[in-house]
Amino acid sequence: QLQLVESGGGLVQPGGSLRLSCAASGFTLGDAAIGWFRQAPGKEREGISCISKTGRSTRYTDSVKDRFTISRDNAKNTVYLQMNSLKPEDTAVYYCAAGRLINLCVSALGAWHRYDYWGQGTQVTVSS
């Protein structure tokens, strides 16, 4: 019954922007930290961002920290990932994940095994 659904992916030119959404159903999103991950063909899954249960704490991997912004609207049961200045290297399937036992994003960034629920992913393609 617990479900996460990503949306907002697509094809964009280098330098463009996309806003991904992660909508939760079947549980209260405010009860979980939310992470964003991505996986490019032939590469390992990469943790790129995490937001705490309240939204007070956020973390980013170095490759995106100056370009991406994670936020959440608990009233709408939705987490967002605003992606600016996109590069071809950002091309990947993007996943959101919920971790109900995660209290510190500093220790959860990239730690995929700590997340309990995963969305199906949304494709982001950055191409000229």
Q: Topology, pairings included?
A:
Elements (H helix, E strand, L loop, with lengths): L2 E5 L2 E3 L5 E8 L7 E7 L6 E6 L6 E3 L7 E6 L4 E6 L8 E8 L17 E2 L3 E5 L2
Shape: globular
Taking the sheet with the most strands, its summary is:
7 strands, mixed
Instruction: Give the helix proportion (percent range).
Output: under 10%
- What is the element string, with H for helices and E for strands? EEEEEEEEEEE
On the 0 to 100 scale, the average pLDDT is 94
Number of strands: 11
Tally the helices: what do you get? 0
Return residue spans where pLDDT drops below 50 for at least 5 consecutive residues. Answer: none
Query: Which class best fits the helix and strand makeup?
Result: mainly beta
Note the gap between the termini: 40 Å
Tell me the β content. Answer: over 45%
Multimerization state = single chain
Radius of gyration: 13 Å
